[in-house]
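Um, can you check?
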Amino acid sequence: MNIGTAAEMSGVSAKTIRYYEDIGLVPQALRRDNGYRHYEQTDIETLRFIQHARRLGFSVGDVAKLLSLWRDKHRASAEVKSLALRHVAEIEGRIAELQSMRRTLVHLSDRCHGDDRPDCPILNDLAGLGKKD
């Protein structure tokens, strides 16, 4: 199948497929006599795997490791679990950071009158002029 069909079947855009080939995440597609890329069902399965892992927030580097583990039928599942748990810890760190940002913005918004006056605690805080409460 051509790259357009592969993109449609895998849910990965043709541009992204080319990018994955360029960085070596997936092997270069076979070429037909006319020079067009040709993909097999196994390529679609690999692209779906990558797409799912990326949607879960894994980095391209971690996806490469996961692909390697997926292809290795003699792997230890402990290695996969370790990678997944490390990613969970990273997600929890980002969640904590986002919650802190939210608390700060809610606090600043509560202090802002939101009227016609020019005084604005939100802008003062962004400028480093906010009062320490």
In short: The chain has a mean pLDDT of 93. The helical segments are 3-10, 14-22, 41-55, 60-71, 77-111, 121-126. The chain has two domains: 1-58, 76-133. Strands lie at 30-31, 37-38.
